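Human:
Take a look at this sequence-structure pair and walk me through the tokens.
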Amino acid sequence: MLNIYVTKIVNTKLSDLIDHSKKFLSEARINKIQNMHYEIDKKRSILSYMLLLFGLINDYSISIDDIEIDVDYFGKPFLVNNDLFFNYSHSGDYIVCAISNKKVGIDIEKYRKMREIPVNLMHKKEKYKYTFINNKEKYFF
């Protein structure tokens, strides 16, 4: 089973976000968050973790007391004593979390309008096709 959760990074003050989520955060996680330099990274860390907790508690019926996270040799977080896997991604104002009974990865990217494609770097055949298509971004990707 695979579940994907999405949230928008809220415009709440960081101190309010910490106060509201503190009862769910371990001391180690709070220390890690406090050592982050940028406020947006602190918010991302809190909200990513809360998104994971939401999924584990609501869709997998795991007690908050049974949720323990560690990191492997490569720094990838995993659930201790559990057969579930999870992964986070964030871009722009959004965070996603995937939880599965198999190894899982997820990635999001903020859509940005492309700048003009350097046609002079294209092969002659590509240049010809590119010149006559309507949706240039779709063709490029």
